[in-house]
Amino acid sequence: MQVQETVSEGLRREYRVVVPAAELETKLDAKLDQLKGQVRINGFRPGKVPAAHLKKLYGRSAMAEAIDTTVNETNQKIVADNSFRMATEPKVTLPTEEAVVAEVIDGKRDLDYTVAFEILPKIEIADVRGVQLEKQVAAVADGEIDEALDRLTAQQKPYLPKGEGAKAAEGDRVQVSFVGTIDGKPFEGGTADDIAVDIGSNTFIPGFEPQLVGIGEGETRTLNVTFPENYGNTELAGKAAAFEVTAKAVQAPGTLVVDDEFAKQLGMESLAKLREAIKERIKREHDGASRSKIKRALLDALDEKHKFELPPTLVEDEFNNVWNTVTNDLKQQGRTFEQEDTTEEKARDEYRKLAERRVRLGLVLAEIGDKQKIQVSDEEVSRAVVDRARQFPGQEQQVWDYYRKNPQALATLRAPIFEEKVVDYLLELATVTEKEVSKEELFKVDEDEA
């Protein structure tokens, strides 16, 4: 076998490989010998099928397997001999001319192919000890707890019938059934029965709720509205529609006493315990925002300290993922780059830089984690699967089976756990000072934050 390097440019390597026909023939004979004891052919005892007959029946398929095995083994040897760390899977280019392929398969011609590798760069990890980082923290104010309790109360608020002849007003709830049409024709998703509409909640299409003011129980009226341009269903976005609505009941909000009894209805011992639970939930939200900001600052510092050539395919794949997300979001919202105060060219440039940053940081974090022997245990991954399954009530077993049977899907859960553990390690090395800020400052999103 001959292996000759033909390209060595940056992170790209390419080799020409020539495998003599005689070598392939030897591998073919070995595969046929394996088949001898496995196949059952009428007229022959097990293991006694003549090699010539086996070759006649299975020669071409066995040779194809031999070629596939040879290519894989050769590629692995090239990687091992050169101590390559692969950025992507090798790209193999086999002969395509029908006559040439036939001669190789029939053992009459050497196998001559090329294989291209994209390798990872050698990364020199900068010293991150003593990096100055600011950790923003915000105490949970009583006002936040009160606001959260008010929202919870609003969700639990009872609605009582307004009585015979009563008309709906702002803040009331109307139980309705409706049929929606566009240009006189019903459309998918435009019909519903016994739907609760809280007038003034702005949860329905703009213009729908205000037109229910003054409606009475048993009354039917037609509401004319226009779907927003950025409506989620693009087939309905921007279109005018008419809804024939019948009010089944008109209800007014009742009073709700927020006391220990109310807390017990929610499974808490007392109102004080309910407030403690709300405070703890808000604190977790604050901690999450604080962690996100200091992690961003840490990644900024890492990005600044590390500059090296990036594998082009990894960058291109990451850019395509980001770009597809951006363009799909714009399409769903019915917006253009110009409406976002930019151009497609400028946006492409910005998101390509973002893709480069993500690839660079991903490689740096992986290198640090590898050198520090940071591992993600099976138990940690299992907990992540359980957490994921809980997001789909009633489908927990299906979610569990999906991840158990799909190693690639499981890797998508393992990767963020690994990243957070590396970040924890780096934060221990950094010099972190806490800064008390307001809730608004803590949750403020920087314009350049990605």
TrEMBL record:
Catalysed reactions, semicolon-separated: [protein]-peptidylproline (omega=180) = [protein]-peptidylproline (omega=0)
Any one GO molecular-function label of the UniProt entry: peptidyl-prolyl cis-trans isomerase activity
Query: Ranges for the PPIase FKBP-type domain?
Result: 171-266
GO CC term, one of those recorded: cytoplasm
Tell me its family: Belongs to the FKBP-type PPIase family. Tig subfamily.
Record function comment = Involved in protein export. Acts as a chaperone by maintaining the newly synthesized protein in an open conformation. Functions as a peptidyl-prolyl cis-trans isomerase.
A Gene Ontology biological process in which this protein takes part is:
protein unfolding
Q: In the UniProt record, does the keyword Flavoprotein occur?
A: no
Q: Give the EC number(s) under which this enzyme is classified.
A: 5.2.1.8
Q: What is this protein called?
A: Trigger factor
InterPro entries, per the entry: PPIase_dom_sf (IPR046357), PPIase_FKBP_dom (IPR001179), Trig_fac (IPR005215), Trigger_fac_C (IPR008880), Trigger_fac_C_sf (IPR037041), Trigger_fac_ribosome-bd_bac (IPR008881), Trigger_fac_ribosome-bd_sf (IPR036611), Trigger_fact/SurA_dom_sf (IPR027304)
Classify the main location. cytoplasm
Q: Classify the source by domain of life.
A: Bacteria
Domain comment, as recorded: Consists of 3 domains; the N-terminus binds the ribosome, the middle domain has PPIase activity, while the C-terminus has intrinsic chaperone activity on its own.
Q: Which Pfam families does the entry link to?
A: FKBP_C, Trigger_C, Trigger_N
Entry keyword set: Cell cycle, Cell division, Chaperone, Cytoplasm, Isomerase, Rotamase
In terms of PROSITE patterns, this protein maps to: FKBP_PPIASE
HAMAP family in the cross-refs: Trigger_factor_Tig (MF_00303)
Question: Where is this chain's protein located in or outside the cell?
Answer: Cytoplasm
